Amino acid sequence: MGAVKTDIHAKERTYTQTYALTTAAGVKALLRDRHRISARRERGDYAASDILIDLHSAIESATLTDRQAEAIAWVYGVDVTQAEAARIMGVSQPTVNQALDAAAERIAAVYERWNYGALTVEVDGPVTEAPVTVEVAADNGDNDERTDAN
Hints:
Layout: E1 3-7, E2 14-20, H1 24-42, H2 46-61, H3 66-77, H4 82-89, H5 93-113, E3 118-124, E4 133-137
Helix pairs in contact: 1-2, 1-5, 3-4, 3-5, 4-5
């Protein structure tokens, strides 16, 4: 008898996120979620690839300072805290925060020039527990009744 595993909680681990890319807050949210969006790209989501290509192009077009680019790389690329990025960069945490704010403003200005509006993406949420699967037996035409004793 065959079995099919179905993840009954898959939809509970995804959510829809809207990014207002012409604002610094929207850019920061997109940078924060870029690893999750990248995971969708790896599963064949071509729209996720387009989003990441456009983000990379916007970062390149924003003419960021070296400090801004480094802060983005550490905080949003490597996923370290601002305090840890500050230690690595040899500056204070408020300096890293200022660099991130200025970088997000510059990137948002690029999206504004490109006439981008809001972008809505389905993002995989964090998995807080192991996925629950349900095994469903395939009907092979054998209709005999089974009890817990079998």
